[in-house]
Amino acid sequence: MTAIQWQTVQTYDDIIFQRAEGIARISINRPEVHNAFRPKTTFELIDAFSRAREDPEVGVILFTGEGGRAFCSGGDQRVRGHGGYVGEDNVPRLNVTDLHKLIRSIPKPVIALVAGWAIGGGHVLHVICDLTIAAENARFGQTGPKVGSFDGGFGAIQLARNVGQKKAREIWYLCRQYDAREALEMGLVNAVVPLEDLEAEGVRWAKQILKMSPIAIRMLKSAFNAELDGMVGITELAHNANMLFYMTDEAKEGRNAFLEKREPAYSDFSKFPRRP
Ligand SMILES: CC(C)(COP(=O)(O)OP(=O)(O)OC[C@H]1O[C@@H](n2cnc3c(N)ncnc32)[C@H](O)[C@@H]1OP(=O)(O)O)[C@@H](O)C(=O)NCCC(=O)NCCSC(=O)c1cc(O)c2ccccc2c1O
């Protein structure tokens, strides 16, 4: 049972976006196809995640799928066309890349709550999340080489960071499926709980994180990413340092001197120590 009263934030066709007590809940709502995503689903997810990012009341995001039988089964193969997934505008695209980058860089923890299938591109989505809590009925795996696809981005590289190179290659080369216990053993998920407790457990983890320092959590996510994300990761960490610097009197002295049009030299930084 979930002891939380979710409020709808925004209404969409393919997803549900709710919020309560500092937690956002974003859920794929296409249970008839095991929550496979089409371009519209992905655009809606990007919109909801962006709103959750901008919302100062939200500290943690739960990412899940409706129906209890699937988190997500990846790209909707019925609309897979020539060079991508085809949306209502008839244009083929792989817009899930933008969702991957957003979940990666959003400065708030994203927790995947996986019931049932997390497979193909749906598996990649949980791999990218900061944490994963699995229900006992969860099943994990990649299908790309079976269905003529592959994800050489976070789907391969972050997976290898999570479970090690040998296991990641096994998962991709053999396209086997793994149950929740196996997933826990290999470090693919953080915890396994009964299906009926999944959401409550996610809320419990989120509430524990919400008690922590938001800036400490933000800097940690940024630091974990920076090691792996090259110039983009270092840029995010560096700009978080900017955010902290802008909070100091030293940085404010520079801004004030400019605004006050002080002459001849703008700023007076002499009172600020040069620390060891
Ligand atoms: C997940 C399954 C193993 C479940 O099998 P099960 O027997 O339990 O259920 P059904 O197969 O009967 O499924 C019920 C119902 O759902 C439909 N369905 C399931 N998955 C999809 C799907 N992905 N697309 C469309 N429809 C789906 C299924 O057809 C049934 O409908 P009915 O009308 O027949 O009742 C099994 O369903 C399964 O293997 N699913 C496919 C998993 C898969 O291969 N996914 C795609 C992988 S590729 C991908 O996701 C991908 C997407 C991207 O955007 C990328 C972008 C960039 C790089 C790579 C990308 C990428 O790899």
Automatic annotation (TrEMBL):
Its cofactor is hydrogencarbonate. Hydrogencarbonate binds at Q142, T143, G144. Pfam families: ECH_1. SUPFAM superfamilies: ClpP/crotonase (SSF52096). One of its GO terms (molecular function) is 1,4-dihydroxy-2-naphthoyl-CoA synthase activity. Keywords: Lyase, Menaquinone biosynthesis. Pathway: Quinol/quinone metabolism; 1,4-dihydroxy-2-naphthoate biosynthesis; 1,4-dihydroxy-2-naphthoate from chorismate: step 6/7; Quinol/quinone metabolism; menaquinone biosynthesis. GO terms for cellular component: cytosol. It comes from the Bacteria. InterPro entries: ClpP/crotonase-like_dom_sf, DHNA-CoA_synthase_MenB, Enoyl-CoA_hyd/isom_CS, Enoyl-CoA_hydra/iso, Enoyl-CoA_hydra_C. Substrate binds at residues 73-77, 85, 117-121, 143, 149, 246, 261. GO terms for biological process: menaquinone biosynthetic process. It catalyses: 2-succinylbenzoyl-CoA + H(+) = 1,4-dihydroxy-2-naphthoyl-CoA + H2O. The record marks Y85, Y246 as: Important for catalysis. Its EC number is 4.1.3.36. Belongs to the enoyl-CoA hydratase/isomerase family. MenB subfamily. HAMAP family: MenB (MF_01934). Converts o-succinylbenzoyl-CoA (OSB-CoA) to 1,4-dihydroxy-2-naphthoyl-CoA (DHNA-CoA). This is 1,4-dihydroxy-2-naphthoyl-CoA synthase. It comes from Tepidiforma thermophila (strain KCTC 52669 / CGMCC 1.13589 / G233).
